[in-house]
Amino acid sequence: MLLGLVGKPSCGKSTFFKAATLADVLIASYPFATIEPNHGMGYVRVNALCKELGVKCNPRTGYCDGETRFVPVELMDVAGLVEGASEGKGLGNKFLDDLRKADCFIQIVDISGTTDSEGKEGEGNPLEDVRMLENELNKWYLGIINRVWEKLSRTISSTKQEFSVAIAKQLSGLGVKEDDVKDAVLKLKLDTEKLSAWSKEDLLNFARTLRHLTKPMIISANKADKKGAKENIEIIKKEFPDIIVIPTSADSELSLRQAANAGLIDYIPGEKTFTIHEDKTNEKQEEALESIQKNVLDAFGSTGVQEVLDKAIFELLKYIAIFPAGSKLADSKGNVLPDCFLLPKGSTALDFAYYLHTDIGDRFVKAVDIRTKMPVGKDHPLNHRDGIEIMTS
Questions:
Q1: Quick check: 217 and 244 in contact, CB under 8 A?
Q2: What average pLDDT does range 373-381 have in this prediction?
Q3: What confidence tier does 3 reach under pLDDT thresholds 50, 70, 90?
Q4: pTM of the model
């Protein structure tokens, strides 16, 4: 699972990345501070199954506070994209290539409008920033398709090869699957028997639809506590009603995470409040923390960073969390509910078995729901937060 952070230069991508992962990355107020992509682990929240079952879990990865299980997901922060990136401007080809393996995009937008299109201080337009990035990502897909379209369309026509198979194979590096191609063709009502009749607009619409299906996007409206941000958020929501827009303050989240790490406060990512340890903080620190509480947490309910990650996984990508567990709820070393995995919604018990290991899938006999103790078959659809024991031959 890989979430790609995208946006124009100096919009707050690296701050968001560091706030979500606490990775040591360069944060600077000048464009292209990031050249090589940064990779790190963030976490999404799942209501703890251990509390429901009356036990205390020992996560192998991530962590649990007894109420919430934090499950790891990988984040990647690439350099800022500018207009013309799909044609190579600003090293755009390299930066876009870094994004090939991303499952979805989190677009960081300077919603305050205090940086221009190239990330320099000045008057910006958040709506145009979103439009620009949408356009560049769609043209990126279109460029890849255009490079092979003439030869590929002739081959498909002459060999009668199935269109979805040929396109999915050609675009496999972008994560395009046959069903994605079929869905795009059906939605656009395109005739795959007459590829030579497709217009430039047909190809662009096809590329755009494929991109939305294979790399959907959520918007982090960063610097939401700044002047003019509220109005800009509403404008973007109206212009892009199909995109999830979350008000965020990455800078505030980073401050809270660092303060918690230093023992100055008790803070759980995503929460709407925190507790200050007054014996460890000075007056200046307390004033800064109280400002975050008033201007960010009270205003928006959270800093938004954790909400962006949660919605990207569970709402945008529609994944579910599954706990592998035997009758004793522990592994061979006595670790209780050590793992929690993220699978696509609609996954079956057999899908889960194969996810764990090919041999487990091949030797699947049945699965057992640890809540009900009832056996379920291989085609049984799993639900979010299921605890499942796989029985093998």
A1: no
A2: 95
A3: very high
A4: 0.91
Would strands 63-64 and 68-77 be described as parallel, antiparallel, or unpaired? antiparallel
- Where is 159: in which H helix or E strand? helix 126-159
Q: Return the H-helix or E-strand segment holding 178.
A: helix 178-188
What is the structure's pLDDT at 31? 47
- Residue whose structure tokens are 């990775």: 23
Distance of alpha carbon 229 from alpha carbon 120, whole angstroms = 18
pLDDT in tens, 69-97: 999 999 999 877 878 766 655 544 566 77
Task: Quote the DSSP letter at residue 172.
Answer: G
* Structure confidence by residue, pLDDT tens digits, 313-369: 999 999 999 999 887 888 888 889 999 999 999 999 999 999 999 999 999 999 999
Query: Which contiguous run of DSSP H or E holds residue 366?
Result: strand 364-369
- Return the structure tokens found at 384: 């979010």
Secondary structure element (H or E) that encloses residue 3, with its range? strand 2-6
Measured CA to CA, the distance from residue 13 to residue 24 in angstroms comes to 14
Separation between Cα atoms, residue 293 and residue 272, nearest integer Å: 8
Q: Set out the domains of the chain in order of their start, with CATH numbers.
A: 2-37+78-124+216-312 (3.40.50.300), 136-210 (1.10.8.470), 320-392 (3.10.20.30)
State the Cα–Cα distance between residues 220 and 126, nearest whole angstrom: 11
79 burial type by CB count under 10 A (0-12 exposed, 13-18 middle, 19+ buried): buried
Q: What is the pLDDT of residue 73?
A: 97
Inform me whether the pLDDT recorded for 117 exceeds 70. Answer: no
Give me the count of residues in the chain: 393
What DSSP line would sit under 269-333, residue for residue? TT-S--EE-TTT--HHHHHHHHHHIIIIIHHHSS-SHHHHHHHIIIIIS-EEEEEE--TTSB-TT
Angle of CA points 86, 92, 98, to nearest 5°: 105
Q: At which residue do the structure tokens 């031959």 appear?
A: 393
Tell me the C-alpha distance between 51 and 36, whole Å: 41
Distance CA 93, CA 83 (A): 12
Rounded to whole angstroms, the Cα distance separating 261 from 263 reads 5
Q: At what angle do helices 200-214 and 126-159 cross, to 10 degrees?
A: 110
How many whole angstroms separate alpha carbon 154 and alpha carbon 269? 53
Q: How many CB atoms lie within 10 A of CB 84?
A: 13
The token pair that represents 309 in the structure block:
């990650």
